[in-house]
Specification:
heterodimer, A: alpha+beta, four-stranded antiparallel beta sheet, B: 82 residues, alpha+beta, two-stranded antiparallel sheet
């Protein structure tokens, strides 16, 4: 916003954000003017020599300048500093409030919606914690978690229903996890299988076939990318059931 | 029905990104490939249940100048779109 004004006083007034500051400037100007008026009246009423008049002018101007400076330092700056800290504190509080979720369920539980295209595994279930295999790393979500959107990688999703209970595990090939402000987490995956349903022989043979396909595929082609996907997913499947495929 | 731009491939990206994007795959193709990889690694009976979910079948026919052509039953991806 460009201040289109050449008047220094007006510019100073407009630059003051708080009305108190504007009032303070008026007070300073009034003090200045009243001092000048007093000096003029005093000098004109009493017969004095020009030298002492000049001396008096200088003294009064200095006093006015000192008073202005004192007022500026004690009131304006402090008020400006105060307003700045107040503004930043309140804006900080607002930002914290916006990012912090506050509606935890009974006894610190979170709501879980775990959905597949063909089946809704959990809808509105109250659980203690969910451990999610994010693409950038594994992380856990409990009640009052900060809102988060995470892409999942092939890995194990663990759901802890109660404090200290064994986690319920599902292997997911990918998907997305969205944690909302009200302690609700939506997890959508194309498929989710129990670890008991995974065949270790099929995983090993799939891994070897994928490695061979990768070696024989053209660099940068879709076939090589598909082989890479197969390698990654089979390795993750192996890790889930206790094999270590290299 | 086939659209005019069905033959156009998505643009191949060269900026730093995932390997499947660089090869020209979309996220849907990537995640569905990963899901089919998981399905192949299942034990019976979970495997046949999962494979049955992706079964499909429909009758396709080509219309020309307002008349319907012969109907063919499509059940595999390779026969689809022809």
């Amino acid at each position: 916003v460009e201040l289109v004004t050449h008047n220094m006083y007006e510019r100073r007034r407009l630059a003051c954000r708080m009305p108190m500051q504007k009032w303070m400037i008026n007070v300073r100007v009034c003090i200045y003017i009243s001092m000048l008026v007093y000096m003029y009246v005093h000098c004109s009423l009493s017969p004095v020599s020009p030298v002492s008049l000049v001396h008096r002018l200088i003294v009064i101007h200095t006093a006015v300048a000192v008073a202005q400076a004192a007022l500026h330092l004690t009131t304006q700056n402090r008020m400006m500093m105060l307003s700045r800290s107040v503004l930043s504190a309140s804006s900080r509080r607002l930002a914290v409030k916006a990012f912090m979720s506050t509606e935890a369920g009974a006894a610190g539980t979170m709501t879980l919606n775990f959905n597949l295209p063909h089946e809704s595994v959990y809808s509105g279930a109250q659980v203690k914690q969910v451990i999610v295999p994010g693409a950038e790393g594994e992380f856990g979500v409990t009640a009052d978690h900060v809102p988060l959107v995470a892409q999942l990688k092939a890995g194990v999703l663990q759901i802890i229903h109660e404090e200290g209970s064994e986690p319920e595990k599902y292997f997911v090939p990918g998907g997305f996890s969205l944690t909302h402000e009200n302690s609700t987490t939506d997890i959508s995956c194309p498929n989710a299988v129990k670890l008991d349903d995974i065949d270790s022989a099929a995983v090993t043979s799939g891994f070897e076939a994928a490695k061979a396909a990768y070696a024989s595929a053209e660099a940068g082609s879709v076939a090589q990318a598909e082989a890479q996907i197969d390698i990654d997913v089979n390795r993750a499947l192996g890790n889930a059931i206790g094999l270590s495929l290299v | 029905a086939r659209r005019k731009d069905d033959d156009k491939q998505p643009p191949k990206m060269s900026t730093p990104t995932t390997f499947w994007r660089l090869a020209g795959m979309s996220y849907m193709q990537y995640v569905n490939r990963a899901a089919s990889c998981v399905t192949k690694a299942l034990k019976e009976p979970a495997k046949s249940k999962a494979l049955a979910r992706s079964d499909f079948s429909y009758n396709a026919s080509v219309w020309e100048a307002g008349t319907q052509g012969t109907k063919t039953n499509v059940t595999t991806f390779s026969a689809a779109g022809k």
